[in-house]
Write a structure and sequence with these properties.
Elements: H1 2-23, E1 46-49, H2 61-67, E2 75-77, E3 81-86, E4 90-95, E5 102-106, H3 114-117, E6 125-130, E7 151-154, E8 161-162, H4 185-193, E9 197-203, H5 212-219, E10 225-229, H6 238-247, E11 248-252, E12 275-278, E13 294-295, H7 302-314, H8 316-320, H9 341-352, H10 362-368, H11 376-417
Parallel strand pairs: 1-2, 1-5, 5-6, 6-7, 7-8, 9-10, 9-11, 11-12, 12-13
Antiparallel strand pairs: 3-4
Helix pairs in contact: 2-9
Length: 418
C-alpha cells in the first residue's frame, strides 16, 4: 500500500510541476506568456494585474502585441505566483505581488487579505482601476487604508491616468482624402438617406440610478423608440446593432448614472453616423462639442424634445448639421474592445522613471468627489412642471398685489374724505 501512496505522490508532484511549467513567466521577452519559465528575476519593471476586469484579462493578446511598440519595456502578467527554475527538477515558488513594481486592482473585485497590506512598498504603484460610475462601484467599507492606492486609472478626467471609453481622433492633413479613415460627404448623404426609423436604445440595466427608464417611458408617449437589450428580452448581436443604427436617426445614449465624465460606449455609437441623445449636456464638456449631440435637459419636457427630433427626421439638412464632426474627426474607432495598451505603456513609463504619486484618501476621491445626480431624469421631467407652477404662483401674486394696492388706495381716499 505504501508503494501506491508513494506513486500517487509522484504523480501529484508531476502534475504540479507541469502546472508551474505552463503558468510561470518568461524573462526572454517583455511579454510574460504562460508557457515559459523564469530562471532569474525580471530585469524590466514588473506590472501585475492582481485582479481581472469582470472576468476578462487585462493583458490579452491584442494588448500584448501593441505593448511591443511601447517605448518603455516592462513585463506583464496576471499570475500571482511564479517559479524560478533551477536545473531540471529544482524550482522555487515566489509570490509575485511583493516583487511587482506596479499592481493593478479592479475596484469592484478587490478587498485585500492582510498579507497584501503587510507587504507594502513605497516605491510600488498600486493602481485603482474602474470604468464604472460610483453608484455601481462603491468601495466604502473596504479593508484597505485610505492611502493604499497611489495611482488612479478611471473614466474620470482627474485620474492619474484618464481612460475614456472612446474619443474623437483629429484628421491629419495628409489623411483628408483617405476615405478609409475619413467620411466623404457622399457617404454621409447615402447613409442618412437610408434612415427611416425614429430612435433606438440599447439597455441592459432595467432599474438605474439615473432613472433613465422614466424618461424613456415618457418619450415613448410621443414617438416610437425601438428598445433592444436584456430589459425587454431582445438581445442582439454586434452586427445586428450596427444594422439597427443604420435604420434609425437617433440613439438614446442614456447612461445608468449621471456622473461627471461618465460617457460610455452608448454615446460613442455616434461613430456609426447616428445622432446621440444624452440626458445631461454638461457631462460631455471637454469630451465632445455641443453641436454633435442633443441633450434632454435642454428641453422643458419629453414632448418638446420629441417634437424637435421629429422635425429633424423630416429636414435632412438640419439633421446632418449634427454630423459635422465627420469633417474634423476620423471615422475609425479609438480602440477595439478593452485594449488599453497605451495606458499600460504609460504605467510602464511611470515605473521605469520611478515616478512618485500619492492619493491621500481614495474613499474621499472616489466617492465624495464623484459628482453624481441620482434620479436625474425625475428632476428633468418635473422641472418644467415646477417652473410652470412657479410662473402661475407669480402671476397670482402680481394680481393679488394689484388688488391689494387698489384696496389701500381706497382706504386712503376714505380717510382723506373724513
Amino acid at each position: 500500500m505504501k508503494y501506491f501512496y508513494r506513486l500517487l505522490l509522484y504523480i501529484l508532484l508531476g502534475i504540479a510541476y507541469l502546472f508551474l511549467w505552463k503558468y510561470s513567466l518568461s524573462t526572454n521577452s517583455t511579454l510574460l506568456t504562460e508557457k515559459k519559465q523564469l530562471s532569474s528575476p525580471p530585469k524590466n519593471p514588473l506590472i501585475l494585474a492582481y485582479t481581472k476586469q469582470f472576468g476578462k484579462s487585462f493583458f490579452h493578446s491584442e494588448v500584448l502585441e501593441d505593448l511591443e511598440k511601447c517605448q518603455y519595456k516592462c513585463e506583464y502578467t496576471e499570475n500571482q505566483i511564479y517559479a524560478y527554475i533551477h536545473g531540471l527538477y529544482m524550482y522555487q515558488l515566489v509570490l509575485l505581488y511583493p516583487k511587482s513594481d506596479v499592481a493593478i486592482f479592479h475596484a469592484r473585485f478587490f478587498n485585500p487579505p492582510s498579507s497584501i497590506l503587510s507587504q507594502q512598498n513605497p516605491n510600488r504603484l498600486n493602481v485603482f482601476f474602474s470604468l464604472e460610475a460610483l453608484p455601481y462601484e462603491k468601495i466604502s467599507g473596504r479593508k484597505y487604508p485610505p492611502d493604499f492606492f497611489n495611482v488612479s486609472m478611471t473614466f474620470r478626467r482627474n485620474s492619474t491616468i484618464w481612460i475614456p471609453y472612446n474619443k474623437f481622433e483629429a484628421i491629419k492633413p495628409e489623411e483628408k482624402d483617405n476615405e478609409t479613415l475619413v467620411w466623404a460627404d457622399k457617404q454621409v448623404d447615402e447613409i442618412v438617406a437610408k434612415k427611416r426609423k425614429f430612435a433606438v436604445i440599447f439597455v441592459s440595466n432595467c432599474e438605474t440610478n439615473s432613472n433613465r427608464e422614466s424618461y424613456l417611458a415618457e418619450l415613448q408617449k410621443y414617438a416610437n423608440v425601438t428598445v433592444h437589450g436584456e430589459c425587454n428580452g431582445h438581445q442582439i448581436s454586434t452586427e445586428e446593432m450596427k444594422a439597427e443604427m443604420e435604420k434609425h436617426f437617433f440613439v438614446l445614449a442614456f447612461e445608468n448614472s449621471v456622473c461627471e465624465d461618465y460617457v460610455t460606449e452608448k454615446f460613442w455609437k455616434i461613430k456609426n453616423l447616428i445622432v446621440p441623445i444624452v440626458l445631461k449636456r454638461s457631462i460631455l464638456k471637454g469630451i465632445a462639442e455641443d453641436e454633435y449631440f442633443i441633450a434632454a435637459d435642454d428641453f422643458d419636457s419629453a414632448h418638446t424634445l420629441a417634437k424637435r427630433l421629429l422635425y429633424l427626421t423630416k429636414t435632412p439638412d438640419e439633421y446632418k448639421k449634427y454630423l459635422s464632426w465627420t469633417k474634423k474627426y476620423k471615422k475609425t474607432n479609438f480602440y477595439k474592445g478593452n485594449n488599453w495598451s497605451k495606458y499600460f505603456c504609460k504605467l510602464c513609463e511611470m515605473a521605469t522613471k520611478k515616478e512618485e504619486h500619492t492619493i491621500e484618501n481614495i474613499f474621499e476621491w472616489w466617492e465624495m468627489d464623484a459628482k453624481c445626480e441620482p434620479d436625474f431624469t425625475i428632476k428633468v421631467l418635473h422641472a418644467h412642471e415646477i417652473e410652470t407652477l412657479f410662473m402661475k404662483a407669480r402671476k397670482i401674486l402680481v394680481i393679488f398685489g394689484f388688488f391689494f394696492i387698489l384696496y389701500l388706495y381706497k382706504l386712503l381716499f376714505q380717510l382723506l374724505c373724513i
